[in-house]
Specification:
single chain, mainly alpha, Dna Ligase, domain 1, two-stranded antiparallel ribbon, 6 strands
Length: about 350
Protein backbone atom coordinates (compact mmCIF):
# COMPACT_ATOMS: atom_id res chain seq x y z
CA UNK A 1 0.00 0.00 0.00
CA UNK A 2 1.26 3.45 -1.17
CA UNK A 3 2.00 6.27 1.23
CA UNK A 4 -0.28 9.14 0.04
CA UNK A 5 0.90 11.74 2.53
CA UNK A 6 3.66 12.95 0.27
CA UNK A 7 1.31 13.46 -2.66
CA UNK A 8 -1.25 15.33 -0.52
CA UNK A 9 1.36 17.78 0.62
CA UNK A 10 2.43 18.47 -2.98
CA UNK A 11 -1.20 19.02 -4.03
CA UNK A 12 -1.84 21.34 -1.09
CA UNK A 13 1.23 23.39 -1.92
CA UNK A 14 0.16 23.79 -5.57
CA UNK A 15 -3.29 24.94 -4.56
CA UNK A 16 -1.81 27.45 -2.11
CA UNK A 17 0.49 28.87 -4.80
CA UNK A 18 -2.43 29.28 -7.20
CA UNK A 19 -4.58 30.99 -4.57
CA UNK A 20 -1.82 33.38 -3.50
CA UNK A 21 -1.05 34.26 -7.16
CA UNK A 22 -4.67 35.00 -7.87
CA UNK A 23 -4.97 37.21 -4.76
CA UNK A 24 -1.93 39.33 -5.60
CA UNK A 25 -3.09 39.69 -9.24
CA UNK A 26 -6.56 40.95 -8.05
CA UNK A 27 -5.03 43.48 -5.64
CA UNK A 28 -2.71 44.90 -8.32
CA UNK A 29 -5.51 45.26 -10.87
CA UNK A 30 -7.84 47.06 -8.44
CA UNK A 31 -5.09 49.51 -7.42
CA UNK A 32 -4.45 50.52 -11.06
CA UNK A 33 -8.20 51.06 -11.73
CA UNK A 34 -8.46 53.35 -8.72
CA UNK A 35 -5.58 55.63 -9.84
CA UNK A 36 -6.92 56.14 -13.40
CA UNK A 37 -8.70 59.48 -14.16
CA UNK A 38 -12.19 59.06 -15.51
CA UNK A 39 -12.68 60.04 -19.16
CA UNK A 40 -15.87 62.03 -19.89
CA UNK A 41 -17.23 61.71 -23.38
CA UNK A 42 -19.43 64.61 -24.60
CA UNK A 43 -21.06 65.39 -27.91
CA UNK A 44 -21.57 69.13 -27.09
CA UNK A 45 -19.56 71.66 -29.14
CA UNK A 46 -16.42 72.97 -27.54
CA UNK A 47 -16.66 76.71 -26.66
CA UNK A 48 -13.39 78.49 -26.26
CA UNK A 49 -13.69 81.36 -23.79
CA UNK A 50 -10.97 83.88 -24.40
CA UNK A 51 -12.08 86.67 -22.07
CA UNK A 52 -14.86 87.76 -19.79
CA UNK A 53 -17.52 90.42 -20.80
CA UNK A 54 -16.14 90.86 -24.33
CA UNK A 55 -19.01 91.57 -26.79
CA UNK A 56 -19.35 89.33 -29.77
CA UNK A 57 -18.30 91.18 -32.91
CA UNK A 58 -21.03 91.34 -35.58
CA UNK A 59 -19.75 91.76 -39.12
CA UNK A 60 -20.70 95.24 -40.43
CA UNK A 61 -23.37 95.56 -43.10
CA UNK A 62 -22.03 96.08 -46.56
CA UNK A 63 -21.79 99.82 -47.35
CA UNK A 64 -23.39 101.01 -50.59
CA UNK A 65 -20.97 102.76 -52.89
CA UNK A 66 -21.33 106.56 -52.92
CA UNK A 67 -23.46 108.18 -55.60
CA UNK A 68 -21.52 109.39 -58.60
CA UNK A 69 -21.25 113.15 -58.86
CA UNK A 70 -24.22 114.71 -60.64
CA UNK A 71 -22.92 116.83 -63.51
CA UNK A 72 -26.04 117.45 -65.61
CA UNK A 73 -29.26 119.31 -64.87
CA UNK A 74 -32.39 117.22 -65.28
CA UNK A 75 -35.68 119.10 -65.06
CA UNK A 76 -38.97 117.52 -64.03
CA UNK A 77 -41.80 119.76 -65.21
CA UNK A 78 -44.86 120.64 -63.15
CA UNK A 79 -47.03 118.27 -65.19
CA UNK A 80 -44.53 115.45 -65.83
CA UNK A 81 -45.79 111.86 -65.52
CA UNK A 82 -43.56 108.84 -64.80
CA UNK A 83 -43.68 108.04 -68.52
CA UNK A 84 -42.57 111.59 -69.34
CA UNK A 85 -39.68 111.36 -66.90
CA UNK A 86 -38.54 108.00 -68.23
CA UNK A 87 -38.84 109.22 -71.82
CA UNK A 88 -36.74 112.30 -71.10
CA UNK A 89 -34.08 110.22 -69.37
CA UNK A 90 -34.01 107.86 -72.32
CA UNK A 91 -33.82 110.71 -74.84
CA UNK A 92 -30.92 112.18 -72.88
CA UNK A 93 -29.01 108.90 -72.95
CA UNK A 94 -29.22 108.26 -69.20
CA UNK A 95 -31.17 104.99 -69.46
CA UNK A 96 -31.73 102.41 -72.16
CA UNK A 97 -35.20 101.10 -71.31
CA UNK A 98 -37.84 103.75 -70.58
CA UNK A 99 -40.56 101.21 -69.81
CA UNK A 100 -38.36 99.42 -67.28
CA UNK A 101 -37.56 102.72 -65.56
CA UNK A 102 -41.26 103.62 -65.37
CA UNK A 103 -41.83 100.28 -63.65
CA UNK A 104 -38.90 101.03 -61.34
CA UNK A 105 -40.51 104.35 -60.36
CA UNK A 106 -43.65 102.48 -59.31
CA UNK A 107 -45.46 104.43 -56.61
CA UNK A 108 -42.53 106.68 -55.70
CA UNK A 109 -43.23 110.41 -55.61
CA UNK A 110 -41.04 112.56 -57.81
CA UNK A 111 -41.32 116.27 -57.09
CA UNK A 112 -41.19 118.80 -59.93
CA UNK A 113 -37.92 120.69 -60.05
CA UNK A 114 -34.32 120.32 -61.16
CA UNK A 115 -31.88 117.56 -60.16
CA UNK A 116 -28.19 116.87 -60.72
CA UNK A 117 -27.64 113.53 -62.47
CA UNK A 118 -24.91 111.83 -64.48
CA UNK A 119 -24.74 109.27 -67.26
CA UNK A 120 -22.53 107.04 -65.10
CA UNK A 121 -25.40 106.54 -62.64
CA UNK A 122 -27.29 103.27 -62.68
CA UNK A 123 -31.10 103.33 -63.05
CA UNK A 124 -31.40 102.68 -59.30
CA UNK A 125 -29.08 105.59 -58.54
CA UNK A 126 -30.95 107.88 -60.93
CA UNK A 127 -34.20 107.03 -59.18
CA UNK A 128 -32.56 107.66 -55.80
CA UNK A 129 -31.62 111.17 -56.93
CA UNK A 130 -34.89 112.23 -58.59
CA UNK A 131 -37.05 110.82 -55.80
CA UNK A 132 -35.12 113.01 -53.34
CA UNK A 133 -35.17 116.78 -52.93
CA UNK A 134 -34.65 118.95 -56.03
CA UNK A 135 -31.98 121.64 -55.83
CA UNK A 136 -34.23 123.97 -57.83
CA UNK A 137 -37.98 124.34 -57.35
CA UNK A 138 -40.81 125.69 -59.44
CA UNK A 139 -42.70 128.80 -58.32
CA UNK A 140 -45.76 129.93 -60.28
CA UNK A 141 -46.64 133.62 -59.90
CA UNK A 142 -49.97 134.50 -61.52
CA UNK A 143 -50.62 138.06 -62.72
CA UNK A 144 -52.34 140.64 -60.57
CA UNK A 145 -50.80 139.81 -57.19
CA UNK A 146 -49.29 142.31 -54.79
CA UNK A 147 -45.83 141.54 -53.45
CA UNK A 148 -47.13 140.22 -50.11
CA UNK A 149 -48.96 137.51 -52.05
CA UNK A 150 -45.88 136.80 -54.16
CA UNK A 151 -43.78 136.44 -50.99
CA UNK A 152 -46.28 133.89 -49.68
CA UNK A 153 -45.73 131.84 -52.85
CA UNK A 154 -41.93 132.11 -52.75
CA UNK A 155 -41.32 131.41 -49.07
CA UNK A 156 -42.43 127.74 -48.69
CA UNK A 157 -40.56 126.16 -51.64
CA UNK A 158 -37.43 128.25 -51.07
CA UNK A 159 -37.41 127.67 -47.32
CA UNK A 160 -37.56 131.33 -46.29
CA UNK A 161 -37.94 132.10 -42.62
CA UNK A 162 -40.59 134.52 -41.39
CA UNK A 163 -37.88 137.15 -40.99
CA UNK A 164 -36.61 136.65 -44.54
CA UNK A 165 -40.15 136.90 -45.90
CA UNK A 166 -40.80 140.13 -44.02
CA UNK A 167 -37.49 141.61 -45.16
CA UNK A 168 -38.24 140.69 -48.76
CA UNK A 169 -41.49 142.69 -48.53
CA UNK A 170 -40.17 145.66 -46.59
CA UNK A 171 -36.50 145.87 -47.63
CA UNK A 172 -35.46 143.80 -50.65
CA UNK A 173 -38.31 145.16 -52.79
CA UNK A 174 -37.94 148.79 -51.79
CA UNK A 175 -34.42 149.45 -53.10
CA UNK A 176 -35.84 152.03 -55.53
CA UNK A 177 -39.16 153.92 -55.37
CA UNK A 178 -40.13 152.62 -58.81
CA UNK A 179 -39.48 149.05 -57.66
CA UNK A 180 -41.95 149.04 -54.75
CA UNK A 181 -44.59 147.24 -56.82
CA UNK A 182 -45.37 146.27 -60.39
CA UNK A 183 -41.95 145.02 -61.55
CA UNK A 184 -42.16 141.51 -60.07
CA UNK A 185 -43.13 139.81 -63.26
CA UNK A 186 -45.76 137.10 -63.16
CA UNK A 187 -44.34 133.93 -64.69
CA UNK A 188 -43.32 130.36 -63.95
CA UNK A 189 -39.86 130.30 -62.35
CA UNK A 190 -37.35 127.56 -61.63
CA UNK A 191 -35.39 128.93 -58.68
CA UNK A 192 -32.42 127.45 -56.77
CA UNK A 193 -33.48 126.58 -53.23
CA UNK A 194 -30.42 128.29 -51.77
CA UNK A 195 -30.85 131.55 -53.66
CA UNK A 196 -30.88 134.63 -51.41
CA UNK A 197 -34.19 136.52 -51.22
CA UNK A 198 -32.56 139.70 -52.52
CA UNK A 199 -31.33 137.73 -55.54
CA UNK A 200 -34.86 136.48 -56.15
CA UNK A 201 -35.86 140.15 -56.29
CA UNK A 202 -33.29 140.69 -59.05
CA UNK A 203 -34.51 137.59 -60.87
CA UNK A 204 -38.12 138.82 -60.98
CA UNK A 205 -37.15 142.35 -62.00
CA UNK A 206 -34.92 140.98 -64.76
CA UNK A 207 -37.86 138.98 -66.08
CA UNK A 208 -39.97 142.15 -66.07
CA UNK A 209 -37.27 144.10 -67.94
CA UNK A 210 -37.03 141.33 -70.49
CA UNK A 211 -40.76 141.47 -71.23
CA UNK A 212 -41.15 145.25 -70.95
CA UNK A 213 -38.16 146.10 -73.15
CA UNK A 214 -40.15 146.09 -76.38
CA UNK A 215 -42.89 148.31 -74.89
CA UNK A 216 -40.62 150.98 -73.45
CA UNK A 217 -39.82 152.79 -76.73
CA UNK A 218 -43.49 152.64 -77.73
CA UNK A 219 -44.59 154.37 -74.52
CA UNK A 220 -41.79 156.88 -74.94
CA UNK A 221 -43.03 157.63 -78.46
CA UNK A 222 -46.48 158.43 -77.02
CA UNK A 223 -44.92 160.57 -74.30
CA UNK A 224 -46.08 158.20 -71.57
CA UNK A 225 -43.73 157.54 -68.66
CA UNK A 226 -43.08 153.88 -68.10
CA UNK A 227 -44.05 154.22 -64.43
CA UNK A 228 -47.39 155.77 -65.44
CA UNK A 229 -48.00 152.97 -67.93
CA UNK A 230 -47.17 150.33 -65.37
CA UNK A 231 -49.39 151.85 -62.70
CA UNK A 232 -52.36 152.01 -65.06
CA UNK A 233 -51.63 148.47 -66.26
CA UNK A 234 -51.78 147.21 -62.68
CA UNK A 235 -55.26 148.76 -62.29
CA UNK A 236 -56.41 147.30 -65.60
CA UNK A 237 -55.14 143.91 -64.46
CA UNK A 238 -57.22 144.06 -61.27
CA UNK A 239 -60.34 145.61 -62.83
CA UNK A 240 -60.76 143.60 -66.05
CA UNK A 241 -62.93 140.50 -65.89
CA UNK A 242 -60.62 138.71 -68.32
CA UNK A 243 -57.83 139.33 -70.82
CA UNK A 244 -60.28 140.05 -73.63
CA UNK A 245 -61.80 142.93 -71.64
CA UNK A 246 -58.47 144.61 -70.86
CA UNK A 247 -58.38 146.95 -73.88
CA UNK A 248 -61.94 148.14 -73.10
CA UNK A 249 -61.17 148.80 -69.40
CA UNK A 250 -57.99 150.56 -70.46
CA UNK A 251 -59.91 152.76 -72.90
CA UNK A 252 -62.45 153.73 -70.22
CA UNK A 253 -59.76 154.57 -67.65
CA UNK A 254 -57.81 156.61 -70.22
CA UNK A 255 -61.03 158.53 -70.96
CA UNK A 256 -61.44 159.35 -67.28
CA UNK A 257 -57.83 160.47 -66.91
CA UNK A 258 -58.00 162.61 -70.04
CA UNK A 259 -61.21 164.27 -68.81
CA UNK A 260 -59.71 164.87 -65.37
CA UNK A 261 -62.25 162.61 -63.70
CA UNK A 262 -61.67 160.54 -60.61
CA UNK A 263 -60.93 156.94 -61.52
CA UNK A 264 -63.31 155.64 -58.82
CA UNK A 265 -61.55 152.25 -58.81
CA UNK A 266 -62.21 149.74 -56.04
CA UNK A 267 -58.89 147.93 -56.58
CA UNK A 268 -56.87 150.97 -55.44
CA UNK A 269 -58.86 151.06 -52.18
CA UNK A 270 -58.33 147.34 -51.68
CA UNK A 271 -54.59 147.91 -52.05
CA UNK A 272 -54.33 150.62 -49.40
CA UNK A 273 -56.69 148.85 -47.01
CA UNK A 274 -54.69 145.63 -47.16
CA UNK A 275 -55.70 142.33 -45.63
CA UNK A 276 -58.01 142.81 -42.68
CA UNK A 277 -58.71 139.11 -42.35
CA UNK A 278 -60.86 138.55 -45.41
CA UNK A 279 -58.05 138.50 -47.97
CA UNK A 280 -56.06 141.15 -49.81
CA UNK A 281 -58.77 141.80 -52.40
CA UNK A 282 -61.97 141.49 -50.40
CA UNK A 283 -64.87 143.73 -51.51
CA UNK A 284 -64.65 147.30 -50.26
CA UNK A 285 -67.10 148.89 -47.82
CA UNK A 286 -68.62 152.35 -47.57
CA UNK A 287 -66.07 153.13 -44.86
CA UNK A 288 -63.23 152.16 -47.20
CA UNK A 289 -64.28 154.88 -49.63
CA UNK A 290 -63.61 157.47 -46.94
CA UNK A 291 -60.00 156.44 -46.37
CA UNK A 292 -57.70 159.46 -46.54
CA UNK A 293 -55.02 158.07 -48.79
CA UNK A 294 -53.44 159.00 -52.14
CA UNK A 295 -54.50 155.49 -53.22
CA UNK A 296 -58.16 156.40 -52.72
CA UNK A 297 -59.16 157.15 -56.33
CA UNK A 298 -62.65 158.07 -55.18
CA UNK A 299 -61.27 161.11 -53.35
CA UNK A 300 -58.18 161.93 -55.42
CA UNK A 301 -58.01 162.55 -59.16
CA UNK A 302 -55.33 160.75 -61.14
CA UNK A 303 -53.29 157.64 -60.59
CA UNK A 304 -52.07 156.34 -57.22
CA UNK A 305 -48.38 156.84 -56.28
CA UNK A 306 -47.25 153.50 -57.75
CA UNK A 307 -48.66 150.24 -59.13
CA UNK A 308 -51.10 148.32 -56.93
CA UNK A 309 -50.19 144.89 -58.33
CA UNK A 310 -47.84 143.15 -60.73
CA UNK A 311 -49.53 143.10 -64.15
CA UNK A 312 -49.20 140.78 -67.09
CA UNK A 313 -47.81 141.78 -70.46
CA UNK A 314 -51.38 141.63 -71.78
CA UNK A 315 -52.42 144.38 -69.36
CA UNK A 316 -49.39 146.46 -70.34
CA UNK A 317 -50.25 145.97 -74.01
CA UNK A 318 -53.84 147.05 -73.31
CA UNK A 319 -52.58 150.32 -71.79
CA UNK A 320 -50.48 150.92 -74.89
CA UNK A 321 -53.31 149.94 -77.24
CA UNK A 322 -56.62 150.80 -75.54
CA UNK A 323 -59.95 150.20 -77.21
CA UNK A 324 -61.53 153.25 -78.79
CA UNK A 325 -64.71 153.92 -76.82
CA UNK A 326 -66.85 156.77 -75.55
CA UNK A 327 -67.64 154.87 -72.35
CA UNK A 328 -66.78 156.42 -69.00
CA UNK A 329 -68.40 153.81 -66.74
CA UNK A 330 -68.46 150.03 -66.53
CA UNK A 331 -69.66 147.16 -64.40
CA UNK A 332 -69.44 143.36 -64.36
CA UNK A 333 -72.59 141.31 -64.07
CA UNK A 334 -72.87 138.07 -62.06
CA UNK A 335 -71.34 136.16 -64.99
CA UNK A 336 -68.37 138.58 -65.14
CA UNK A 337 -69.55 140.08 -68.41
CA UNK A 338 -68.58 143.75 -68.77
CA UNK A 339 -71.20 146.41 -69.57
CA UNK A 340 -70.09 150.00 -70.19
CA UNK A 341 -71.91 153.31 -70.55
CA UNK A 342 -71.07 156.74 -71.91
CA UNK A 343 -73.21 158.65 -69.40
CA UNK A 344 -73.91 158.27 -65.71
CA UNK A 345 -77.63 157.86 -66.46
CA UNK A 346 -76.85 154.90 -68.74
CA UNK A 347 -74.60 153.48 -66.06
CA UNK A 348 -77.42 153.70 -63.49
CA UNK A 349 -79.68 151.87 -65.91
CA UNK A 350 -77.05 149.14 -66.30
CA UNK A 351 -76.78 148.83 -62.52
CA UNK A 352 -80.54 148.35 -62.28
CA UNK A 353 -80.62 145.89 -65.17
CA UNK A 354 -77.56 143.74 -64.54
CA UNK A 355 -77.06 143.98 -60.78
CA UNK A 356 -80.21 144.94 -58.91
CA UNK A 357 -82.68 142.96 -61.01
CA UNK A 358 -80.50 139.85 -60.93
CA UNK A 359 -80.63 139.89 -57.13
CA UNK A 360 -84.44 139.75 -57.06
Amino acid sequence: MYDTTKYKLIAFFCVAVILLGGYFTYVHFKKNKTNEKPQIVSTAPIIEITSVNVPIKIPPKPVSPPLPLGTDQFVVSLTATPDDISGNLSDGGYIQDASAFTALIGTKTISPGAYKISKVMTPAQLLQVISGKPYMKWVVIPPGLRKEEIAALLAPPLGWTKKQTTEWITKDTTIKPEYIEGVYAPDTYLIPVGEKPVDVTTRLISKFNEGFASYLPQFTAKNIKWTTALTLASIVQREAANVADMPLISGILWNRLNQNMALDVDATLQYVRGNKGAGWWAPITVADKKLDSPYNTYLHIGLPPHPIANPSLQAIDAVLNPATTDCLYYLHDKNRVTHCAATYAEHQANIQKYLVSSMN
